[in-house]
Amino acid sequence: MSLKVEASIGVLWVAVERFGQQILQVVIFIILARLLTPEDFGLIAMLMIFFAIAQSFIDSGMGQALIREKEISDQDRSTVFWLNLLLSVAFYGLLYVGAPWIAEFYNRPELVDLTRVMGLAVIFFGIAIVQRSEMTQQLEFKKQAYAQVPAVFIAGTVSITMAYMDFGVWSLVAQYLLVAACSSIALWILQPAKIRFHFDKESFNRLFGFGYKLLLSGLLNTIFLHIYKLVIGKFFVAATLGFYTQAKKMQQMASQNLVGIIQKVTYPLLAKTGGDPVRLKRGYRQVIQSSSFVIFPGMLLLILFAEPIMLYVLGEKWIDAAPFLQILCFSGILYHLHAVNLNILKVLGRSDLFLKLEIIKKVNIAIAILVGLQFGIYGLLVGQVISSYIALFINTWYTAKFLNYSILEQGEDVLKVLVLSIPMIAIIAALSFFFPVQSLLILIAYLLLSGSIYVGSNLLFRTEIVNIVLEMAHPFLPKRIKAIFNL
Q1: Any residues with CB less than 8 A from the CB of 199 and at least 6 apart, and which?
Q2: What is the enclosing helix (H) or strand (E) of 170?
Q3: Domain chopping of the chain, boundaries
Q4: pLDDT tens readout for residues 33-74
């Protein structure tokens, strides 16, 4: 099976996992957003940085190291499993003991119990890292979809029921815990692993030799990915953090989830190229162009319709999150370029450079926070956008060097795709100016019309990027569609 076909099939099943999960999560989130308050969501957001840090340590970069292995031995599985189990239990202990300090930092006493109960999810996630890594290495994305989607459904059903029964923020705690527990149990059922009561020093040295640099860079990335929640939770009221968190979640639905699909599939596939710069450059160009083809129009539509989306989808109490969403979309529109550039460094085995770049970019983010905080919440958000563009330049510098793919050449490829969204945005902006969105039905109609204009105009011109996207979708298109477009 060729890499192209493997990529297409991989993308399909990761899409089923991600978008199947996201469709459920969107429905669940809309219901919960109408039942709960922005403050409830803000309280949970205050804790996420601590759980995310624990998760980074539990992975230890070992999961990524396993994916790079041609053959995963029983010694490798056992070593990674026992290391992760030990780390997960240790981190739960730290969270349990440290809960009063977390509550004191935010001056919210209720966070003590929330931390101690939610912290159990760390253990659940830790016991299934071998299964997740091995499935990814074997491109078994179908199994991951079978595990994750039902887990989200069960967790969502329970959390909605609890919200109706006025359990408040504990509804969100139950959702987080059940996703972790149900998905891990399902992964063990679908992919049983031979785990021996043995820790192999040679396996540890080999895997950790590659993985520890990814651990450090991943830890830095995790801290700074959630640092805005920490800062907003500390210096602003919980409701403001709730607005930020949900605006960020909406932006991520349209950008980072697609990027997650692309990263998950392309990392093991590009690793099979053996580091051939010609093949890597060709694959890299196709990845950034095809992902831009979907992400650019999505981000632009979110900017255009941010207010009616908040008003008619989540409810009037979330209207203050609309400007947050608009600002965040200006950084989200290029998020996929960050991710794909970093994936190339992992494929080339340059985890040392990966770590170096992460340190430089985090200094950039810290400066943006210190300066932006002087201008309030909107200063923080604008600073986040500016720092993301600086980070993109840093990320692309070494990709250009290793693949002979200059920053100007990359920029030209990306701009070619961005131009494809102009007809759609121009038409929809003009229509919405004369006929404003005044109901959910009108909003849906505008979004459907936007998609029709975008797809239709691009099929009409059949540019190189459109042909790349159609080629990737070829295995899944009906014969009649293939005949119409001569595929």
Answers
A1: 78, 79, 82, 83
A2: helix 170-190
A3: 236-487
A4: 889 999 999 999 888 888 888 877 766 566 666 666 666 666
